[in-house]
Amino acid sequence: MKSTLLLFIAFFYSTFVLAQTSSTGLRGVVKNVQGEALPYAAVVIKGTPNGTITNAEGRYEIGLAPGHYVVVFQYLGFQTVQKSIEVGTGFTSLDVTLEEQALRLAEVETKAGNEDPAYTIMRRAIAKSRFHQLQVQRFKARVYTKSSFTVTDLPNLAEMAFRKQLKEAEKEANFKVGVPMLNETVAEVSFSQPNTYRQRIIANRNSQGDFLSPNQFYNASFYNPTIAGTVSPLSPKAFAYYKFEYKGTFRENGPDGKAIEISKIQVIPRQWGEGVFRGTIYIIENTWAIHSLQLETVNNIGILISIRHVCTPIQGVWMPTNQRFSGSGSYLGVKGNGYYIRNLTFTEFVVNPAFVEDIEVADEKKGAPANTLAKSDIKGKQFDELVKKQKEFSTKNLRQLVKEYEKQEKQARKNRKEDVTVVRDDSLEVDSLARKRSNVFWDSLRSVPLTSAEVKSYRKADSLGLTREIKAPGTKDTTGRDTTQQKKSKAFSVGQLIGGNTWRFNKRSSLIYTSPITRIEYNTVEGYTLEGALNYRYQARVDSINRFRKIPLGEWNIGGTGRYQFGRKQFVGYGLASYQHKNTLVSLSGGRYLYQFNPNNPISPFLNSLTTLLFEQNFAKLYQKDFLNLSVTATPFKQRVSLTGGLEYAQRTELANYREDLKPWIDSPRREFTANRPDNNELANTGFPTHNAVVLNLTASARLGAMQYVMRNGRRTALRNNESPLLSVNYRKGIHGIANSAVDYDFLQASISHSFETGIRSRLNYQIGAGAFLNDKQLYFPDFKHFAGNQFFLQQGDVVSTFRMLPYYQYSTGKRFVEGHVLAEFRKFLLTQVTFMRLLGMKENLFVHYLYTPVSKNYTEVGYGLDGLIPQVFPFFRVEIVSQWQDAKYQGLGFRVGTTLKFGR
Q1: Digit-coded pLDDT (tens) for 494-543
Q2: What's phi and psi for 414, nearest 5 deg?
Q3: Do residues 858 and 886 lie in contact, with contact meaning Cβ atoms separated by under 8 Å?
Q4: Whole-angstrom Cα distance, residue 363 to residue 359?
Q5: Which residues form a coiled coil (predicted)?
Q6: Closest-CA residue to 783 (of 877, 662, 686, 864)
Q7: Distance between CA 18 and CA 300 in Å, rounded?
Q8: Beta strand 259-269 with 278-284: parallel, antiparallel or unpaired?
Q9: What are the counts of helices (DSSP H) followed by strands (DSSP E) for the chain?
Q10: At a CB cut-off of 8 Å and minimum separation 6, what does 871 contact?
Q11: 445-474 average pLDDT score
Q12: Separation of alpha carbons 27 and 293, rounded Å
């Protein structure tokens, strides 16, 4: 229970989380004229890559060698201040007071009837956004990150139920309500165009003291069209989602000493809620780069997230050197707040040669440039050559120029045999000493001082760690792991028999035990059942990506599953052996087991147990199969195609309820248990004799569009949000005569599914399938085509392709079928037109399900769903209202409660 509580806290914590060694330097406090501390103000050493930010108390500290420096202090909405200072021995104190920024309005642009000047500024900034991203050829930087999360309140019920566990968590894991949980990381990061990121963690520390959680480097650039699924104000689609207001302009010294003009733009969402920002963004005139920003958004569970970026010129390119993300809110009754800050110190910075010269951007809506290029003038031309000939371009021409440059670069990468389908290539390496750094080492590396509360939290963690070390001494092996803990993990205890366990023998092998106590089920065919499993896993080959990351190239799995049926007083089970080599899996299984007629299990065993015992509805219909199955699965062509082949021999036996006088826990006078023989409109009798069946099953699926991948530590993974349509084809053949096989049929089906965005947090999902038995000389009910139905008020399965009220087997067919499913998800539809409803995280859906078989009479469901049934308490539930139709005639109305978790997506 304690581990469950800590995992929950860690989950909530993850919602918010998206220097040089010296004994001399500067330290001080940054305040406003009222004497109030300015938290997370930027402190930059002019002419050097060094910089830091103040902590929550306004204090800063930066290591510097003795000498003369010009220090720049920046804070959003305040005048930038430069101070000259001489650093000698020890730390020199320098406190600074910042005054609020005085803005002046552009007189000509604000005349009555004119378009707000913000729009011409934003059009230029949007047109140049990709230019700014491509300016950076490569860089190296030391990155300091600090994240802190504090649980401020727990529900009364949780405090009462978990009082003992909370005390243990405070004692063992340094968790306590009101005390911040910290994580600090210092990393060496490198980037090179177009998509390669390398990160090496050299120091990591957190106040829990018992786990390493280095923050992976991520590029949260507002020049991207979206940031974590939220539309950026600099997106090409920004004007569809935002209004902009010009608030004024101020002047400050630029990197070359010349004054620069900076405009403050108010970002106003057209409909506030999830997926959009609001706040202010500061744009530098003429270069149209981001100077700084302060924006906020709300996520899908109602957590308000605030973002502050301050950019610093590095070789003429304005880079976000200081970033802060903060959040606060509640989830499932747990209240908390947290922040994540990130400070970059560049050690190497190379500007893309093609983008060295800056260019001017003309807003054609205000006045066309002297020369406007046609597409033919741009196609095939080099970007830098065109810039040398012409310094000013329209916003449209600039976008065309950048697109042509990227097209040429992609072709050049193809010519160099590089993989252009990889959109991001990351690697993470952790120094073996990262968690062993001393406090002195941290004091020399930390670029943001700790607050008094954070210091207290670390002291508690250090004392707990020392206590654990004294109480449980153990020797270390060559990897640095405590051998006492290793022996403990291999030790046997009675409790493991009850709850299950995984015994790890070494790096390559482990034994996984699933306790029968965790799989107690009930159905009318078997009665109560206990099911346990034992599996041995061995990694035969391991490929080293780096010294901290290993990728298994070959893996063996050998095990078995046993199930005792108390009603039938029988034992059934099966064995499984498999070997996986890279992207190919070969498996052999065999034994005796009970299966649902629909192999996709339309109702889970757990839910069927509840409906049977509590509601006297035995939906699961089972048959027995004595089988031997050989299957092979491969994903060639860079995982773009998936191929599966299986050959099965089985003896299939019809089963009945184990008793006729079965009684549920709650006996309803309006219901009674049904027979285990399903009702079907195509067959008068779905029963079958015991028979043998040899079945060949082949499936192929492929993405029809271009696939994109990410690489993490050398392992390729397809993007989950890939919007290419998926085409699947399945051929199934009952082979007559072999091993006395009584079946003889050929079945072919195909389907296409697709999911794509239609707006902010809005998607259209569809799946269309059709198939037929080309040969139906001899088949039995297990061979029929079955559909994903549902007859209970609780909805399970994939929300796109599962019918809401279709009887499980009524329209199963041995002839032909066509089915179609459409689900439209809306961020703003009916109830969500009200901003308050959107802020609660509610979303609306419309869906249609259609089925044609020779006897289904064009069965159709039309429904409406509301996600976020009980906001912030049970936000993952949905309620649906569904109407049934056949041959366009209304049949009835039903209600369903389901989950927003996208099973099968």
Answers
A1: 778 888 899 988 888 999 999 999 999 999 999 999 999 999 999 876 55
A2: -60, -40
A3: yes
A4: 13
A5: 391-418
A6: 686
A7: 14
A8: antiparallel
A9: 16, 43
A10: 302, 840, 841, 842
A11: 59
A12: 26
Tell me the domain boundaries of the chain: 2-18+102-349, 359-417
The answer to whether 549 and 430 are in contact (CB under 8 A) is no
Q: Which of 135-149, 204-218, 555-569, 832-846 has the lowest mean pLDDT?
A: 204-218
Q: Which amino acid is at 754?
A: H
Give the model confidence (pLDDT) of 230-278 as tens digits: 899 999 999 999 999 999 998 887 777 788 899 999 999 998 888 899 9
Average pLDDT over residues 430-438: 80
Helix axes 117-127, 395-415, angle to 10 degrees: 20
- What's CA 141's distance to the chain center, in Å? 26
Residue 820 CB partners (closer than 8 Å, separation 6+) = 766, 767, 768, 769, 848, 849, 850
Q: Report pTM.
A: 0.77
- 194: cis peptide before it, omega within 30°? yes
Give the model confidence (pLDDT) of 707-746 as tens digits.
Answer: 777 777 777 777 765 678 999 999 999 999 999 999 999 9
Output DSSP code: residue 107: T
- Cα 82 to chain center, whole Å? 42
Average pLDDT, the chain: 83
Instruction: Give the whole-angstrom CA distance, residue 70 versus residue 309.
Output: 22
Give residue 689's identity as a one-letter amino acid code: P
Angstrom distances, CA of residue 372 to CA of 119, 130, 375, 381, 609: 21, 20, 10, 15, 72
73-101: average pLDDT? 88
Per the rule left: phi > 0, alpha: psi between -120 and 50, beta: everything else, 888 is: left
| Alpha carbon distance 276, 759 (integer Å) | 11
64, 25 Cβ separation under 8 angstroms? yes
For 131, 200, 323, 448, the CA distances from 141, given in Å and listed in that order, are 21, 11, 15, 16
Question: How far apart are the C-alpha atoms of 583 and 578, rounded to whole Å?
Answer: 13
SS3 string, 116-137, reads CHHHHHHHHHHHCHHHHHHCEE
Phi, psi values for residue 867, rounded to 5°: -80, 150
Length of the chain: 905
